[in-house]
Amino acid sequence: MKNIYYFLIGSIIVIFIIILFYRFNRRRQNPEIISNDLAIALALPGSRKVRLHTPSLSKRSTIVRIAKVSSDPVSFTLTMAFQEGLTLTSWLHLKLQTTKGPVTIRTAADTGSQKLLVPTSTCQNCDATGGTWPEDEPGKISGAEQNFNYGSAKFKGAYWTAGFIFGQQTVPIEIAGAESATPCSGQMPPNRPNACNPSICGLLPLQGPATSNDPSFIDELLGHVDIPPTIQLDYTKGKEKMTIGTLDFSGIKLPFLSISEVHSLFGQHVPRIPYYIVKNTGGTFYPDQGDPVAIKLPPYTILDSGTSISVVPSSYHNGAMNNIGGKTGVLTIKFTDPQGNNVDLSLRLGNQFVINNFMQPLKMFDNPPFNQLMIVGLSFMADSILTFSLIPESSDVPGSVTISN
Question: How far out from the chain centre does Cα 117 lie?
């Protein structure tokens, strides 16, 4: 009888050791780096299930309970960069928490991408003049190495867990750390030889399921703070700023392209907003001398603050250039809401540099379905206020943008 008793006790101890070993080994194979803020949030009542957005090359996707923390709207100053009449960039100055204290990163506000990409301190060919992320900072995620491409800018790097300082809070997010980049070509500023490879703050929501796409900066932020899901870019001269979480706005509200329209254009494999796309109702060129001229444009417009110019299919580019005829004047792009109200985004073509560069053809846009698209960049947004709302308009319309000028 005593032998059976000892056998049972021994079996229980062995099983307990096996369970501990299994749990430890599983954690080593799939490490999760959780900040203090997130660890506290996991224990709070009233939390909701959130799927952490992770890149396809990583096996880190998991469901955790995250309690949202109440927050007021937070504003960030936008610093504008110009060149001969074109607005090149709107810079944000964001703070990230490290083990040695906060670091400030100058990053381009980009409504045409979704991740927060920053150069690491050892990045080759990156523009490090706006601050860097310490390469030796803990939190680098094993197995998350990727390529990050932004037009001509091509980066290689990995993901880190980091703390984003948002008002009085530090929010856990993932950042893309660039460790190398393709060298710049063409003429760069003498003080910024790698100016073509800056930090980029993507402001798009996640473009697909969490298991198949890279993390979205704005989704991760909104998943942790209890504020309205809005991003306001105020380009009013002298007052430029970005505000996240405001409901204080007015203007003409344009619904984003509906999910059914997205599927019609791009196919069923794009489940959510591929970009901030709205319909336009054409363009008009008002020359300084002469009568207004209609400018034919593709029907769908991507609002992309990460580029300075407009991009169109070649045929539309040729037609627009012929109608403008090298003249100075103002080009307007008209947008009409469902109630028939109009709002314009305009650009003054005040010199030959602007006339020659404000619109460029893109070969990819020459073929269906992209031949129905154009990109309107930052130069057209100057002196306007754009508020991107991720509050669904309906089950088919994922949100809207309100424009005032």
Answer: 10
374: left (phi over 0), alpha (psi -120 to 50) or beta: beta
pLDDT at residue 32 greater than cutoff 60: no
Distance CA 304, CA 68 (A): 29
The amino acid at residue 273 is: I
Quote the CA–CA distance of 173 and 166 in Å, as a whole number. 11
129-145 burial, b for 16+ CB within 10 Å, e for fewer? ebbbbbeebebbbeebe
Domains and CATH numbers, the chain: 70-228 (2.40.70.10), 252-404 (2.40.70.10)
Identify which of 104, 116, 175 has the alpha carbon closest to the alpha carbon of residue 150.
116
Q: What is the pLDDT of residues 75-88, one digit of tens each?
A: 999 999 999 999 99
Share of the chain above pLDDT 70, in %: 81
CA distance 171 to 35: 9
* pTM of the model as a whole: 0.82
